[in-house]
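FYI - complex with iron/sulfur cluster, inputs then prediction.
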Amino acid sequence: MTAPAHAERAHALLGASKASQWINCPPSARLQDGVPDKRSEYANEGTAAHELSELILQRRLTLCNQAERKRLDKAIADFQTTSTYYGSEMGEAVGYYVEVVEERFMESKARSSDAVILFEERLDFTEWVPDGYGTGDVVLIADGVMEVIDLKYGKGVPVSAIGNPQIRLYALGALSGYSFLYDIREVRMTIVQPRLDSISTDTMSVDELLAWAEEVVQPAAALADAGEGEFKAGDHCRFCKVKGSCRARADANMAAVSYEFKNPALLTLEEVGQILAITEQLQAWAKDVQDHAFDQAVAGHVVPGWKLVEGRSNRAIVDKEVAEKKLEEAKIESDKFLKPRELLGIGELEKRVGKKELAALIGDLIVKPAGKPVLVVETDHRPAINSVENDFANEEF
Ligand code: SF4
């Protein structure tokens, strides 16, 4: 599919989607300015899911005449037949999101018959952030309550609405655009991440949201716009375009590894726990530095001490049909050159058949054995296994 309209949303220097970066590390905004975006397949897939959602929501929740209904039906059918990203997984995820939005809209209507719903609104929060704007997926306004809903199609990183600066900025933009027309007292911010089965909502009074804007957003935005302030590494570095070459992040990680080991010769379990706590962050950083060095080398720059070489490659049959024919003609038994037919894995089956359909057909044949014990931080939501020997007495690892 060609570049979709949603992908063409311009990115402002202090855009909402980068808010956690420029609020926590104001100079990061100017440092990334001009560094090209690496648009991933995941981002394109997310854009496609947003497009489909908008079409379905428009068709189901807005008053439209027959011609408009026809246009939307055709657009949905065209999307489903032409988008390379569309499949049962996207169909189900978008369906889940649409249901949540419908539910919230019905709740709004129950509170007030003249509830308002807006899709893909440009939300302008320049009152607090220079050139600050974003695009809100859904804005609902009814009876003093405004709700902003955001779809996150990705499933790699869980995203919660609680304390989320991106959706708060959307809410500020919506407030700025509609508080003249409606008496809004409370703001709800909801993130729906259907492929992680996650819906989270944060609620603030308008006064609380405005206080956050004045005390946190405005000063950080002024520093970021001027390219000033202090660099600060943290979780927000994950999507920073200079994360592989940033000195502040390198310093923070090097400080973390300059751990002072004391006597005796062996580490105590307490020390081991402290080292484990930083390994994830160090692994992520090491990978980002490797990727950065690779990109530089591919672009023709010399990274002292390193060089690009040809990697390992596998032999390949250029024409499988001809090869198969020749092996048949040579009277080789087919089980010597053809793979046996075998059932796909559960994930792939769910993708192709559909989650619900698969569960209805063979749900009783799917089991989930106990997973291997893994060591995680103690704040992880899963209950601790107290005795591996007891809990896993009949398992083999
Ligand atoms: S990598 Fe992190 S510390 Fe460095 S500029 Fe980006 S956000 Fe700031």
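Residues 1-5 have pLDDT under 50 and may be disordered. The longest strand covers residues 133-142.
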